[in-house]
Design a protein that fits this description.
The chain is mostly beta strands and 456 residues long. It contains five helices and 32 strands.
């Protein structure tokens, strides 16, 4: 088990159970809210059918590339309990996907990392963080239909850490992490055409910010490796988190992509990867998990208006919703619960989710995922069932392939199923579906990372 969360919990959390900590409420109020949640579960049985796609980023067994996609029937996971395997469709990325990538780019895809569906949920977009590939799948047939590779950037490096489809399905915004480029793919899912928009790329090492400062510069933004592009629902803005701290707000449709908001590393800390839109704002976190910055847990709230290239730096200012300077903290995946009431932020090191009220910014509880099913779950990313009664979370393995091992080592690689309670303010880990990939010497290589719910 990791180190304790520190003294701040005693001041902010009033009631701690085995698997959940919530704000102090009367026993009648807690029971009533849990009963209300349980009463919703009957209706959830009639919810829209869905699938859960989870990515094991370890190589296909016996190969130096590939990986695996597991596709679970959603209702099968909703009813899961305990630690038990669940039936899944399996896509071996070392097969048809690797063959397509090699044919179209001359290189095999390595380390599948982040997964998103387009707005219509007809296609899946999978980025490979080690090789820089972006593979696009027909979600219904499971067939790869296109594979592209990001451009060589800083020092010849290229990575596709995250590739995020636009809300109107017209493009994919790609964070070329070690290449330090923000790139764009023009997309037409109906026609099946996907191509790099070469004129759109933004070089984050050489560009000049609207203030006149260099985009990358010591003490301002020292390391501009883009981590996650987070696009608002209208497609007006992209919020680009940076490994070394600071943040850019961009117009993702401009050619080239234009910076309309700039923030320095003092204002926004590094390694943010989670972001959700709620309450007319964009919630974005900052985390640890890199050798240069092992520990960090911050949550910011950015407005969705007021950006312009004529603004001063750090304008409009974000609200600091929460910060914890304690050691052994690592904010990562985020999620908005049903009815947009609460934002959950996972901490891989502590094995918990911190919960925040959208209306007030209050920290309302801590959901502890450690317990009888896992002493060190290392929760990474998550998504929610259509009814909102279950959250599905990837749990990292003992041999992590991304992020610093300080944050990313877990003991139970697989998909966790969290039963949501208290109207989204709390929950309990009800099940783990293990994922395994042992090499010839018996070492567990499975390292689940991306997870998304696809509505059918």
């Amino acid at each position: 088990m990791r180190m304790s969360l520190g003294p701040f919990l005693g001041a902010t959390v009033g009631l701690c159970l085995l698997s959940a900590c919530v704000e102090p409420v009367g026993s009648t109020g807690l029971a009533a809210s849990e009963a209300a949640t349980e009463s919703e579960l009957g209706a959830a049985a009639e919810e829209q059918p869905f699938e859960v796609w989870a990515i094991d980023q370890s190589n296909t067994n016996g190969l130096a590339y590939g990986g695996t996609v597991y596709i679970y029937n959603g209702q099968g996971l909703v009813g899961a309990s305990g630690v038990n395997p669940a039936a899944a469709e399996v896509i071996d990325l070392g097969g048809a996907t690797a063959a397509l990538c090699f044919a179209q780019t001359g290189a095999n895809p390595v380390r599948p990392h982040m997964l998103f569906f387009n707005a219509a949920h007809t296609h899946a977009v999978l980025s490979f963080v080690a090789s820089g590939h972006v593979a696009i799948f027909d979600a219904e047939t499971r067939a790869p239909v296109a594979c592209l590779r990001s451009s060589p950037g800083a020092d010849g490096a290229r990575q596709a850490h995250a590739a995020v489809p636009a809300p109107d399905d017209s493009y994919i915004l790609v964070a070329n992490q070690n290449g330090k480029l923000l790139e764009r793919i023009a997309t037409d899912y109906a026609a099946g055409t996907f191509a790099w928009d070469q004129d759109a790329a933004l070089d984050l090492t050489r560009c000049i910010a609207p203030s006149g400062d260099p985009c990358q510069f010591p003490h301002i933004r020292p390391d501009n490796a883009p981590i996650c592009p987070i696009i608002d629902a209208t497609g007006t803005y992209g919020f680009i988190t940076l490994r070394g701290g600071g943040l850019f707000v961009v117009d993702p449709t401009a050619t080239p992509i234009q910076i309309v908001g700039e923030y320095d590393a003092t204002t926004v800390h590094g390694n943010g990867c989670g972001g959700v839109e709620a309450g007319g704002s964009m919630f974005i976190d900052s985390g640890g998990g890199t050798a240069a910055n092992l520990d960090q847990f911050d949550l910011y709230r950015f407005p969705l208006t007021g950006y312009a290239a004529t603004n001063a730096a750090n304008t409009p200012p974000p609200e600091v919703v929460f910060t914890d300077p304690s050691p052994d903290r690592d904010a990562h995946g985020t999620l908005l619960t049903k009815h947009a009431r609460s934002v959950w932020v996972l901490d891989r090191i502590q094995g918990v989710a911190e919960v925040f009220d959208v209306a007030t910014n209050a920290h309302t509880g801590t959901v502890d995922l450690k317990g009888p099913y896992s002493s060190d779950p290392a929760p990474d990313l998550m998504d929610m069932s259509p009814s909102g009664n279950r959250i599905f979370v990837t749990l990292r393995g003992p041999t992590p392939l991304s992020g610093d091992p300080h944050a990313s080592v877990g003991s139970t690689p697989g998909v966790g199923v969290i039963h949501v309670t208290a109207n989204g303010r709390s929950g309990k880990l009800k099940a783990i579906t293990p994922i395994t990939n042992k090499d010839g010497s018996g070492v567990e290589r499975a390292d689940p990372h991306a997870i998304r719910v696809r509505r059918l």
